[in-house]
Amino acid sequence: MTTIKLPDGREIKYELTRKRVKNVNMRIKADGTVYVSANTRVSIKRIEEILTERADYILNAVKHLQEREQRSEITAQSMRWLGKEYPVRIIRNFSERVALEENELRVFTAHPEEAQQKLSEWAVTNFSALVEELNAEVRTMLISCNFKPPATRISIKDMKTRWGSCSYTRGHISINLRLMAYPRETVLSVLWHEYAHYWHHDHSERFYAFLCEHYPEYHRWNSLLR
Ligand SMILES: [Zn+2]
Q1: Distance from residue 219's CA to the centre of ligand 1 (Å)
Q2: Same domain flag for 114 and 158
Q3: How distant, in Å, are the alpha carbons of 103, 117, 119, 164, 191 from that of 100?
Q4: Element containing residue 81 per DSSP (H, E)
C-alpha cells in the first residue's frame, strides 16, 4: 500500500498490481483504497501522475462508498442460497434492487422495512429461472436417450412435506421452493426424480435404475435432503 500526498494535503492510498492489462485500470473500494493494475511498462511516476490528475474523482468515489457503507447494515439474518450461506446487507438507496455481490446478498432499497419481501421476490425469481434452466437440461437429455417427455408445466411451491411431486396424468411437476437452500445438483436430482415418475410411477428398483442411468450422481446429491 502506498500513499500519495496531494499538494492540498489530501491523500490517496493505492495498491498496485502488475498485470498484462492494456493501460492502467483502477478499482475503488469502500475501505478507501484504490486498486490499480498496470502493465510493467507503465512507470510508478506515470501511475501516480494519473492518480493525482484524477484525485477529485477518486476521492469523491471513496467518500460516496464510505457513506454508502455507513447507510448500510448487515442484518442478523442470513440466507442459504444454492448450498451456501450468505449474510444479508441492507443498503439505503434510491433505486431498488437485490444482488448477490462480494459474497453478500445485498438489498438496495429506500424502504428497509420491505427488505425481507424484496429478498423473497429475488429468491423466487432466480430460483424459478434456475428450475427452468434445469428443466430444459433434463428434457434435452431424455430426448437424446430416446425418451419423449410429455409436455410439462412446472410450478414452484412452498411445500411442507415434499421436495417435489409429479402428476403424470396431468403433466404437472411441482418443485419445492425450499430447495433453493441446496446446491444446484440437488435441485436437479429432485427434477430428475419427478421426471422419472412419468415412466415408473412407484419407487421400485426399476425406478431408481432409470434415475441413476440418466443422472448417475442422483444419490450423492439427493441424499443431502435427508
Ligand atoms: Zn417419488
Answers
A1: 13
A2: no
A3: 7, 16, 11, 26, 25
A4: strand 72-81
Q: What's the CA-to-centroid distance between 81 and ligand 1, angstroms?
A: 24
At 41 the pLDDT is 92
Predicted local confidence at residue 69, as pLDDT? 74
Is 210 found in the same domain as 140?
yes
Evaluate whether 206 touches 196 at the Cβ level (below 8 Å). no
Per residue in 26-62, pLDDT (tens digit) is 999 877 889 999 999 999 999 999 999 999 999 999 8
Residue 26 sits in the same domain as residue 118? no
Alpha helices, DSSP H only, in the chain? Answer: 44-53, 55-70, 115-144, 184-196, 205-214, 218-222
Q: In terms of domains, do 28 and 53 share one?
A: yes
Give pLDDT < 50 ranges for the chain: none
Report how far ligand 1's centroid is from the alpha carbon of 5 (Å). Answer: 68
The model's pTM: 0.73
Please indicate, yes or no, whether residues 111 and 133 belong to a single structural domain of this protein: no
